[in-house]
Amino acid sequence: MESTKRNYYDDLQKTAKPLDDWLILMRMKEDGHWFWRALKGPVKMIINVFKKVKVAAIIKSIATSTLPVVVGALSWLSNLALWESIGIGAAAAVAVYVICIFKYLSLMCTPGADEFHIGYFKKKRKAEYDRYWSRTVDTDFTFEGLHKFLGSVFGFAGSEKMHYEKQLEMLIEVKDKEIAEYKAELAEYEEDIKDFAEQQEQSDLTLEYITDVLKDLNVTLFRMANGIMDFNDLGIVAGLTIYEYSDELLHKVADVRTSGVSPQTIHIEDPRYKDFSIVQMVHSSDRSPKMMEVRPGYHLITNRMRMHNHVTWYITFHVDAVRNPKALSLLLPSDMIEIREIYRMFHALCLILQRRELSAKDGVQDELTGSRREST
Description:
The chain has 12 helices and 6 strands. It is an alpha+beta fold.
């Protein structure tokens, strides 16, 4: 099969040029009517013949043996009457002219001849023209084009086709690389936009949380100004317990908005409480808050506070992450808020409440003036 394809392809390559030359002739416009060309054509033919003929050469070509024949013919013509001589000459001229017309007509329907005339060809060889050429004269079809097309179909286009294919492959490779880079950059941009949107959402949420805390804090400050603030006003973020440390014991000071199951006293060496965040905070020298998850989604977050009278309080926030996500955002480290300021706020409120209790008992032994207590 491959050999057959190759033979057809090579044969078409050999015949494409001659056939295309014929197509060019078939698409020619008629240069006048063929009849008048046939009448005028022999005259030009005879004139061209006489122009090419040299008298000296003719005389020289006449051999000595033929000279008596020529002389005899001339003598015979001289014995005829004038009108006879004219008639014979005219008849001879007409005969020559008619012969030339037939010769010229033959050349007029011969493709490639200078005398070729498409109009006469269509008339003389009408069947051939209608069958093979009439369907192509009004198109751009060429046999050379057919040859190239078959080459591209069967893979015989040669080095030029291979060159263009290689260029096309290189171009596709470059474009694929550019598209891959564009997609990678687009993915990065989309990821950056997603991160920014999440950060913006978190920022808006954090701002909302802080606004809520400020509102509750304002209420607490007014209650303090009116002399009715107590430990229950500390539950502005979440439920909490406060313990005071003394002699390896933690004594409950306050229990706000919790279930109330926290023990009144915790011994820091009791193995039952070793995993409690408050016990871990007592044993730790680290100043950062400690957190434990007592059950899925429920966290205890503990921080240390130095108080008046050289005592230490431990405040533990009880946070349900599902019901109160605000508390986790405000009490755990994040990029949105400085949690130290939240703990300092609770420290300040606790100092105020402790001072009020100590003042009521006349037991304030710490220097309250010129001394500043902060969370440690």
